[in-house]
Amino acid sequence: MALSVLYFARLREALGMAQEDIALNPKLATVAELLEYLRGRGGPWQETLASARLFRVAVNQEMADPATPLKDGDEVALFPPVTGG
Amino acid sequence: MALSVLYFARLREALGMAQEDIALNPKLATVAELLEYLRGRGGPWQETLASARLFRVAVNQEMADPATPLKDGDEVALFPPVTGG
Amino acid sequence: MTVRIQEADFDLSQEIANLRQARPQIGAIAAFIGLVRDVNAGEAVSELTLEHYPAMTQKALEAIVAEVKQRWQLDDALVIHRIGRLLPTDQIVLVAVASSHRGAAFQACEFIMDFLKTQAPFWKKEQTPAGAHWVEARDSDALSAARWSDKK
Amino acid sequence: MTVRIQEADFDLSQEIANLRQARPQIGAIAAFIGLVRDVNAGEAVSELTLEHYPAMTQKALEAIVAEVKQRWQLDDALVIHRIGRLLPTDQIVLVAVASSHRGAAFQACEFIMDFLKTQAPFWKKEQTPAGAHWVEARDSDALSAARWSDKK
User: Fold this and answer.
1) CA A62 and chain centroid, separation
2) Residue C122 and residue C85 in contact, taking contact as beta carbons nearer than 8 Å
């Protein structure tokens, strides 16, 4: 029962991490709850994830929002607003 | 004291003429008066120039309208609505 | 700003390379390519002849390009229009606009095409199984051009 | 409909030729080319690195292309986006849309760019005299994408 969480670009560098597995529990049922958990780590986590303007979330490679539910095996990606093209 | 009048595309074929010189006179002071004179020739002239939808007029290579004045040496072109591109 | 009327075909990559040449500040290029279709208004087309009014064509296209330069901030613009005898799948026209901003490039490119289609003295004659005939101007082209008088 | 993510450069003429291949009914191609500028937000740029989210990029671009197919009548559409290390004047992205009608081609091409700029997981890192930094997303891109929810 785990999520695979990926970090890209500025977030990857700020958090010093490209990927981690996070064990699921009843308090991690939505994207909002996962973000709350990550911010709880303090330091760069709190800072980087402070404002919704600073990052985007995708669940299973599709853009997600705070209400998006999470389940075992989901791939959650956190990344800055995109700048391709 | 003359105009050079050019005919293009469908008009050239319908009128059987690519170019002619028309002597200026006080009754040919505007595009509208020139058109009236040409329609007066009857046959294909009247038919081809019957409706403003069927043709366009340029004077000295710029789009003109019925009120555009004419003077000695002007190049007047009559042609169908354009279809390039 | 370049306007060319020619019988010869053109190479897209080469033309865009020329447009960009020595301008490393260009971030966006919008381009339009018009092609001879093998069918028009339900009829098979075997050949297209493009007639124009030589003394006016260059002048008309340059006036359109001058207008887009005034409306938008552009690095450069290119218009190439072919004349003479063309076959299905042949290239007819290339419009390319270079800018720092993609919005300006897209709008200027579409503006040039809308006014080329209504103001530049070119006429198409199609060869079909039923014989040769002049292509009719379309009301939709006049409407497209009219849009630009409402907005910048 | 083709979506390609690649490190390699692309040749415009060749890509458009592939898009058109065996489709003599195509009358209009609208294209956009994005380029690495040598300056951005007033700073000299010596190099650009494009990172992406491989599992999502293709999927996101295919979703955008599927959306334009539904909104407009198109013959085909092509998106090529480069990743990795790029230099000023390098090509970054090509979007090309083929249709019978130029209005549909222009709109679909601009729609793809607007949504690519806001939905496709690419990130640019610039090398400047002051060091390397991630490019900031621009509000104008979000506004450009938002336009499409008001109109067809």
Assistant:
1) 13
2) no
* Other residues' Cβ atoms within 10 Å of the Cβ of residue B73: 11
Residue C152 lies in a domain: no
Fold classification of B2-79 is Ubiquitin-like (UB roll) (3.10.20)
Residue D152, domain member (yes or no): no
ipTM of the complex as predicted = 0.93
**3-state DSSP assignment of residue B37:** helix
CA distance C99 to C101: 5
How many C-beta atoms lie closer than 10 Å to residue D143's C-beta? 12
Q: What is the pTM of this model?
A: 0.94
Q: Are strands C91-99 and C28-35 parallel, antiparallel or unpaired?
A: antiparallel
D48: phi then psi, degrees, rounded to nearest 5: -130, 135
Question: Cα–Cα distance between C62 and D50 in angstroms, integer?
Answer: 39
**Which residue in chain D has the smallest CA separation from A59?**
D56
In a domain, D66, yes or no: yes
Which one-letter DSSP state was computed for residue D119?
Answer: H
Task: Say how many CB pairs under 8 Å bridge A and D.
Answer: 71
* Dist. CA C35–CA D27, nearest whole Å: 5
Residue B76 — φ and ψ, nearest 5°?
Answer: -105, 130
All residues of chain D having their beta carbon less than 8 Å from the beta carbon of residue A83 are 117, 122-124, 134-137
What are the domain boundaries of chain B?
2-79
pLDDT tens-place string over residues B15-74: 999 999 999 999 999 999 999 999 999 999 999 999 988 999 999 999 999 999 999 999
